[in-house]
Amino acid sequence: MTTPNPLLDTSGLPAFSSIQPAHVTPAMDVLLKEAEAALDKVTGPDVPADYDTLSLLLDVATERLGRAWGAVGHLNSVADTPEIRAAYNENLPRLTEFYTRLGADERLYAKYKALSQSPEGQRLSPARHRALENALRGFVLGGAELQGDAKKRFAEIQEQQAALSQAFSEHVMDATDAYSYYATADELAGVPADVVEATRAAAQAEGKEGHKLTLHMPCYLPVMQYATHRPLRETLYRAYATRASEAGPTERDNTPLMQQIIALRQEEAALLGYASFADVSLVPKMATSPQQVMEFLRDLARRARPFAEKDMAELRDFAGTELGLNDLQAWDTAFASEKLKEARYAFSDQEVKQYFTEPTVLAGLFKLIETLFDVNIKPDSAPVWHESVRFFRIERAGSLVGQFYLDLYARSGKRPGAWMDDVRGRWTRPDNQQTQTPVAHLVCNFASGVGGKPALLTHDDVTTLFHEFGHGLHHMLTKVDDIGVSGISGVEWDAVELPSQFMENFCWEWDVVQQLTSHVDTGKSLPRELFDKMNAAKNFQSGMATLRQVEFSLFDMRLHAEAGNDQRVQAVVDEVRKEVAVNIPPAFNRFQHSFSHIFAGGYAAGYYSYKWAEVLSADAYAAFEEAATGPAGVLNPEVGRRYRESILEAGGSRTAMDNFKAFRGREPSIDALLRHQGMS
Q1: What is the pLDDT of residues 39-58, one digit of tens each?
Q2: Is the pTM of the predicted complex or chain greater than 0.90?
Q3: Average pLDDT of 596-613?
Q4: What are the start and end residues of each CATH 1.10.1370.40 domain in the chain?
Q5: Measured distance CA(22)–CA(35) in Å, rounded
Q6: Are 653 and 127 in contact (CB under 8 A)?
Q7: Fold entry, domain 358-536+610-676
Q8: Which of 178, 198, 214, 334 has minimal CB crowding within 10 Å?
């Protein structure tokens, strides 16, 4: 008897523990054939230009395909093996070709246009009307109005870009995973005990002496912050800063991939009749032009520069007088900054970390979400891809609202960074009239617990966790039933970071932090005195941090807004640094070679979104600060309800500006952001 293919069962949750690489191609054969048949049927003369009919015939088939392919893509990101990678790469061109053709199908475009111009189209609900508008815009950007050779070339470009972006991501993961340095105990002087213990265990597991150091953040960052052995810091910095570049193996060098990706994006823009890819990227965003974005970034740089120059001068002076580092180098910056912070504020990140035990952080986070948003979070069960992954459900008044997987720890075969991804969206399904509840992946790369103790999170880790939960809540708490605009779907890209950055603010509230902390040895909450020191240090080097984000954003926007930059990637990096940076890295630094956000992650000509949305999120959070008068402080359920209803529940069913104004009663102001970052 043949075992059923788990990828073909989309009736419930993905059967992650059963999915094998051998399942991928047979499943895609079936699902692509079903989707093709649906496309042929829906574009035929017998099918009316009716919203429900189009959705029943086409959306049901493409959502089924998307969910199965999403499960494969997820495994490729969090449980990569040569076999799953091969299966993913074998099918990536097929999926790209289908979705490109779907998005450029003239017959389907004609059906949607007919719907929009019909009496029924005029009577659609606001959410459906917005979904229809987005779809029509998507057809234009997808090449539906191109003809002949131009249309064929557009499709070729999409396939080439998909393959190149996947290769870029693989090179970064492989370069990160491939590196190891076996350090002696003496070289690790100053490094926190839990890191020393974990690296020794990693070396012993391979039957080797010493301590295995890697470029994964839970190892790399504490070494850079605390190791007193300067040559070790330089060794690791060089390895990290040159990942996937010409400094390593040729087969992992992302230089030619970046050039090809930029050239293809420029060609795509020209085919669509736009001056640059940046112009194409901004069509569905809040920002209206590359010039507007660059003016926004340069204005922010001007405001931050005096603070950044002061930060840098203080760091150089301290490094020279207190640490004997008169020639401060890139591999000294994190170390000297940590020492300066300890000297100025009399605490270290390592001291704070002992209080943020992962079980307590999660319990406190869940309690905060339950208080503000009138829900309950409970453990749940589902097949998972790794033994450390957990699964939870969110309920309101006993009814299921959404569910999420939580994958917190770094490991080989897992893409670096932190992200939220959807498993499925909220949708009143046209095939059974049942409301499908949303499911999310929440993924981080923290250090796991050592020696039977719980994982210890830095305050930055806690902030990252809150950030990703903000994305997850945006996806899961929606009340919109139309799949194209429920949750984060249909939200302008430069507004999707609003709910995530909003959540970060709670990590700086004393009443909240008390609920997030219990010392790993004593169980005591973080002392108020230590919190006050953290708060005093909150904006430590915020000027430098702001300029660094502006540097990344301006590089991204210029790269995609100016012709010919496919051959000038390093030159653009250098020019932007000369314009805005106060701390210029060494000439060998190749940060762009691992800048997956813009080359493999959907943020091309969109990285500015982090700073753009930070204006929105800071102003949204100010509403909670303004109402923090009673015993609940900022955890005001009434303000939480208004925020939930105006922004989280509304999702993409109206513009981000309309959502924001529904909550705040006005357009956003930059004042709260500057105040939060100590630059007002």
Answers
A1: 999 999 999 999 999 999 99
A2: yes
A3: 96
A4: 358-536+610-676
A5: 21
A6: yes
A7: Neurolysin; domain 3 (1.10.1370)
A8: 178
